[in-house]
Amino acid sequence: MKIGERHYRTLWLNANERSLDVIDQTALPHALVIRTLDTLEDVAQAIESMVVRGAPLIGVTAAYGIALALLADSSERQLEAAAARLLSTRPTAVNLAWAVARMRAALRDVPASRRAAVAYEHAGLMCEEDVSQNEALGASGAPLIEALWRDRGQNGSVGILTHCNAGWLAGIDWGTALAPVYKAHDAGIAVHVFIDETRPRNQGASLTAFELAAHGVPHTLIADNAGGHLMQQGEIDLCLVGADRVSADGAVCNKIGTYLKALAAHDNGIPFYIGVPSPSIDWSLASGALIPIEERSAREVTHITGLLEDGARAEVALAPAGTQARNPAFDVTPARLVTGFITERGVARDTLELRALFPEKESP
Ligand code: MRU
């Protein structure tokens, strides 16, 4: 998508065609910093520190991590060590395990002399697939927004609440939950996106607000606790969020706070849709209760980072020194609170319809 006049993706191969260039998402929205990742360890640390984040982007970055590892040493032992290192970085988004498994399968029968080349080819393929899948997801979901707009006689804009960042910064391009928003906006449908700030890391305030502004999509940032009130006031027509993992029972694991928005939407009769490309569906996991939930540093809760008036970045304390804090990074929304799943193959209202869209996938 665009930043200014230039089209960007979140990652691309460096001019040397080996290293990976990525947008450093810890520097946004205040600076556009491009980082070059030269080694497997660079990739693993970029995922851990959330220089790259968002389920689809983590998956594709990990695929390139394997290619970088094999460039240094193409042995089978190195492939297994790289897979283990990458799998240790973040536990919740299934795209990571999915990407690593796919790379392993693609490389299984490849002779060592060809492994690195095949790994780059395959990572590149996954990168392009991510773009086309999420663009198709956007096309599947845009008619839902258009229908709401027509229902209101094309007066005013469709109010859409979103949580965290499920836009192009969370994938390679387009994004998941925001792909239908971009498609609708580009087609001339009036939308207004209400963005949850998304404490503690504030991906809504720093990333979603950044990318919607860059693309010219009207939006308003709200405190995390304001969504229920705006729903009661009739300002929200639709909730659209992404998913780090959908289990076979249709439970949706996404950024912490998603569940509370789903409850409020249910209470107010507001449709609650999930933008979910197929790599984020974990058909092998029977229940959402089994999804591993990442616990991050308590410091993300007790402190906050931002820009001072003099332009310097600073971290400041919010809580009394020594306050104990917990930081579960994701929660699970049960399928009964979900109106539908927007995928690259269409919209499914429940798990039966979801399964019918992907008949080739195995049951748990
Ligand atoms: O911790 P993050 O920033 O990686 O979490 C991202 C989200 O929760 C997104 O909503 C999710 O990855 C799905 S959208 C691509």
CATH homologous superfamily annotation of the largest domain: Translation initiation factor eif-2b, domain 2
Q: What strand order characterises the main sheet? A: 8-7-6-9-12-17-18
The share of residues in helices is: 25-40%
Task: Specify Rg, calculated over alpha carbons.
Answer: 20 Å
Question: How does the helix and strand content classify structurally?
Answer: alpha/beta
What is the total tally of β strands?
A: 18
Oligomer: single chain
Task: Summarize the structure in short.
This protein folds into two domains: 2-129, translation initiation factor eif-2b, domain 1 (Four Helix Bundle (Hemerythrin (Met), subunit A)), CATH 1.20.120.420; 139-361, Translation initiation factor eif-2b, domain 2 (Rossmann fold, 3-Layer(aba) Sandwich).
Question: Which helices and strands appear, and what pairs or packs with what?
Answer:
Elements: E1 2-3, E2 6-7, E3 11-13, E4 20-23, E5 34-37, H1 40-48, H2 55-72, H3 76-87, H4 94-107, H5 112-151, E6 158-162, H6 179-186, E7 191-196, H7 203-215, E8 219-222, H8 227-232, E9 238-241, E10 245-247, E11 252-255, H9 258-267, E12 272-275, E13 281-282, H10 299-302, E14 303-307, E15 313-317, E16 330-333, E17 340-343, E18 346-348, H11 351-357
Helix pairs in contact: 1-2, 2-3, 2-4, 2-5, 3-4, 4-5, 5-6
Account of the protein in words:
The protein is of the alpha/beta class and 364 residues long. It folds into two domains: 2-129, translation initiation factor eif-2b, domain 1 (Four Helix Bundle (Hemerythrin (Met), subunit A), Up-down Bundle), CATH 1.20.120.420; 139-361, 3-Layer(aba) Sandwich (Rossmann fold). The chain is 39% helix and 19% strand. It contains eleven helices and 18 strands. The protein has a seven-stranded mixed sheet. The protein has a four-stranded mixed sheet with strand order 13-10-11-16, covered by helices on one side. Helix 3 packs antiparallel against helix 4 and helix 5 crosses helix 6 (179-186). 5-S-methyl-1-O-phosphono-5-thio-D-ribulose binds at residues 53-56, 93, 164, 166, 170-171, 176, 203, 242-244, 254-255, 329.
